[in-house]
Amino acid sequence: MEKINLTKIDGGVCAPLGFKAYGIHSGLRKNTDRLDLAMIKADKQCTAAGVFTKNKVFAAPVGVTREHLENGTAQVVICNSGNANACTPDGYEKANATCAALAETLGIPEDDVIVCSTGVIGLSMDISPILNGIPTLLSSLDPTAVGSDKAATAIMTTDTKKKEFSYSFEVGGKTVKIGGICKGSGMIHPNMGTMLCFITTDCAISSSVLRTALLYAVKDTYNMVTVDGDTSTNDTVTVMASGLAGNTEICCTECEEYKEFAEALKHLCMDMALAIAADGEGATKLLICNVTGAKSDDDARILAKAVVSSSLVKTAMYGADANWGRIICALGYSGADIDTSKINITFVSAEGVLPVCKNGGSYPFDEDFAKKVLTRDKIEINCDMNDGEFAASAFGCDLTYEYVRINGDYRS
Amino acid sequence: MEKINLTKIDGGVCAPLGFKAYGIHSGLRKNTDRLDLAMIKADKQCTAAGVFTKNKVFAAPVGVTREHLENGTAQVVICNSGNANACTPDGYEKANATCAALAETLGIPEDDVIVCSTGVIGLSMDISPILNGIPTLLSSLDPTAVGSDKAATAIMTTDTKKKEFSYSFEVGGKTVKIGGICKGSGMIHPNMGTMLCFITTDCAISSSVLRTALLYAVKDTYNMVTVDGDTSTNDTVTVMASGLAGNTEICCTECEEYKEFAEALKHLCMDMALAIAADGEGATKLLICNVTGAKSDDDARILAKAVVSSSLVKTAMYGADANWGRIICALGYSGADIDTSKINITFVSAEGVLPVCKNGGSYPFDEDFAKKVLTRDKIEINCDMNDGEFAASAFGCDLTYEYVRINGDYRS
């Protein structure tokens, strides 16, 4: 990643100029303590872009939003939790009715509405709580950090932590802000956006360039996150740009200004990707696999993903067990072109550096020190393939009792 | 599968004429109650064949045995548990030394020895317990069910049940016997043999035809089993044919006799594949996904495997939760060519038949009945794609707390 000067700021999706947000309990969830409906609204039409799940089975709101973003504009996001609005006969009808109601109230085109849902698949969704909730949401919209907070809370499902980030940076000498909220937890796997994530910025940028920047940012971040190997039906990442920062509109991808914006967007996406991995369902540890020395970019990505996807690696990390055999095993079956005899594997955490495998074979290590290294909550697994010049990192988490508990009876 | 007349008999790998077996505690494992060294010996040289892990990182004994079976003959299997003899600098030296010692004692060619190991990866193996154990094993070899039992027990790692099957059937009017022992549990995933499995038969069959029959049998059985998505470094399936049944040697794959033998071999492999799936690490339930109506054979296999591989499906089945959305989600991301709107999904167990999804959407069902259906220990998930004529079945198990416990600290 290129060097960029970012300043962490408060405000989440409300940090950039021209955005308000809020979240309420609409009644979609039975538990009245839980917010279940979020809105992010721009003061005026924005340029916008989105990336979506590659699952052939995708939820109705994914289909609707993908179509709505084809013209590169949007003004408002409405997102519910508690029901995925996927795989039901009336899914499109419900998603479209939601957009129609909101667009009519706001007096904006229907295709400027981004609609998203997350929750149980296959359950017909009662949208009356959403329709009834719209006026309340609109009257509550807040341009401060409070609004972003509420929205970030309302989109959570099995997440244990709210995920919200924002930065300011310079584009062509003007201060630009960018913010995002997201939710992850289960069904997190490449490829794609891999969760719900809503980004706002006040950067002036054309919709086609915004789209290019989003694809660039997603490739090394969300698309390298895996929690359980399942690609969700609902994954969506959208970005809306209000253009209020006062910079000259970014219209091509060759200029310095594009780079400044794209790197900031990527940085924000990386924050969110790591937060999603660390808060994977039941996770106690963030796992980062850094592959270096691979023969190709594809190989590097495949290798890194194979390691953080392996159930055996994930359980070993949960148990703080330096069972590197499972790592080399995963590298072996990944499908990448490798030379086993050149592989070095090293664990790294805040506790220190622990080489465990040299040239494909065991490298003596102290078990007590290994336990200490692997008991930390962020473990890097460095795999040097010594066989080329390509590198990639993938992000995941350990596999725990809690994952099984959460998913053994998700619907109740 | 074609109709065949098989009679279940006792004896495991000792059921066919011309084989003895045994298992002892050699000292490779610290726990003296656990057998750790198995031998299966034919009275004379057999025709033989094997299939092996496709993992690029494979254990030394896999490399050695693959080479030994190139000439299509073998006479003895020696297999230890407790150490995989994989990813250590002296692995080949150790595997070869084991073969040399056994071959010399028996006065047979070194390449008639099949050597296998299972256990921890990356730990240098002390083979003195094996070398010291060979005389004891040889003097204990038993041609009855007892010998097979002991061998089946000695190859177990995290298996909770010994896996042993044997049948008699007719080939060209002569009675032929076939028997097998296997071990599975963790690191079970297509493609390949996917575990350790040793098969014996007294059928007279050429080595090249035996190899064809083994590949045929493995395709729909072992290669459709997945426990945790990890392809082991050590997976091996071998078959030795003593030829003592008195049938005319099967030398081509066109004749009726070939079909009789190949179907019997496939049936035996299916028994073992299902036993391995049902006894997956921590499993409480056998899951079978039957896909029908797929557009191609490949698609059918990919779809069935995607369902039984999904962590979210596996945990839902553990929780007896009819969350079919996760099944259609897995079908969607499998990579197969599908039409979501045609998919029907039905759960079947000894309790009854429960349709849950019609034409890609929800189909009303009674939650109490669903709970009953899914609380049984064998669940079939029938996915009719209604989009072609191809079918395939994949075999797996649920994902449980116990899987996490077992793998969180395997080495201690």
Low-confidence stretches of chain A: 188-194
What series of H and E elements makes up the topology of chain A?
Answer: EEEHEHEHHEEEHEHEHHHEEEHEEH
Biggest chain pair interface: A-B, 63 and 64 residues
Distance between the termini of chain A: 43 Å
Which class do the helix and strand fractions of chain A yield? alpha+beta
Q: What characteristic shape of chain A results from the CA principal axes?
A: globular
Given the structure, what is the number of helices of chain A? 11
* Strand content range of chain A: 25-35%
Mean pLDDT of chain A: 91
Helix content of chain A: 25-40%
Per DSSP E runs of 2 or more residues, the count of β-strands of chain A stands at 15
Oligomerization category of the chains in this entry = homodimer
What attributes characterize this protein structure?
homodimer, globular, alpha+beta, nine-stranded mixed beta sheet, 32% helix, 11 helices, six-stranded mixed beta sheet, 15 strands, 412 residues
Summary of the model, kept short:
By secondary structure, chain A is α+β, with helices and mostly antiparallel strands. Helix content of chain A is 32%, strand content 27%.
Structure explained in plain terms:
- 2 copies of one chain form a homodimer.
- With 412 residues, chain A is an alpha+beta fold.
- Chain A is 32% helix and 27% strand.
- In chain A, the strands form 2 sheets. In chain A, strands 1, 2, 3, 4, 5, 6, 7, 8 and 9 form a 9-stranded mixed beta sheet that branches.
- The longest helix of chain A has 23 residues.
